[in-house]
Amino acid sequence: MSRRVIEHIVEQHAEDAAFLWLQRDRAADAPDQYLKNLSRLDDRLEAHIDGLRVSDEWGWQVAERAFDQYKEPGETFVAAVLAFESLSENRIGYVLNLAEASPDLFRATVSALGWVEPYRIQEWVRSLLGDPRPIRRLLGLAACSVRRIDPAMRLSELLNDTPAVRARALRLAGEVGRVDLLSDIKAALNDPHETCRFWAAWSCVLLGDRHEALEILQRHASVDGIGWKGVQLLLRAAEHQSAVQWLLSLRGDRSKERLIAAGSGILGDPIFVPWLTTRMRDPKLARLAGESFETITGMSIEREGMHIKSPADVDFENAAPADYFAREEDLVWPDVRKIREWWRRNQTDFSQGRRYLQGKPLEAASLAEIFANGTLRQRRCAALDLALSAPDAPLANSSARSLKRLAPAGSDSTVVL
User: CA-to-CA distance for 279 and 285, rounded, in angstroms?
Assistant: First the structure.
């Protein structure tokens, strides 16, 4: 086989790996993707990365060239995986110096740290957490987050770092179940920086201390990005009737209707069904309202044929505004007439004042079933509910890579810091 043919094959591995990472990134929040779909994507992605690995120096050069040329998230992920696996300070430094300048590239680098086998990154994570540069400490914390690694004593030290690092440390404390740090986290509810106050409240709720923290999350409900993350916990952790009344109180404010449409699915109370079916006629709310209806009732709009073709007169650029709610472009358009008829026939199976998940009263068994067999989006939601019932347990990363390959003999499969 000629050198040119081999070079083309290696370049194809790099190109396909970058593309598949983008597909994986999208699939992780898709309403119709399951863990088995993600596993298939991971196997394909790993095969192309392995093609670059076996090409050794040549594989790195191709990945480096693509990263340098395009500076896109997919190429960043591929280059970062190879760099961290090589343990080369020059390669890792090269990738980090470029990736740290862009939030999208930074996120792809974090994803790479979640992909590489644990024994290969243990020393690097420790090094990042102790780096004099705040951006590197932030990367180290993000790596711990995606792995659900507890940095032990180092985490308590980072709670007194710069605001950005401090906020990430506060978030990680909740993600890994550090109830022993609860007093420090509660103190941060009065932090001078808003983002730190938010993540302190978020972690307090996960760790079981909820009164003042829930009030803070409620005040942040409309803040782009972080606000919706807080609402997802707020509606699950607050007393049910109080949460229902709060969400109902937002009616009449058009700017809050997407929050109500998404939040009603979290609360799972059939009291919201009439409002949801009415909003299914609004192109900006229809698909989101349909998804929440499915979440409450367990009825699949697509499987039951209760959907319509995409409306011809819809301005798709503005039909689903860019905001902090779940993506909805992959959701079907509900047929309001058929759905209302279904609800008339089945509403006696549901009681207002109860929380339902996929048509069943929300209980530990139904949550476990959803986490095991639901879509990736449903698994993420179930993980939050399960974490709220076990404050000292880590919040499960519902879309983490399953590491099937074995580490070399004598190496550990976990990261110990």
Answer: 6
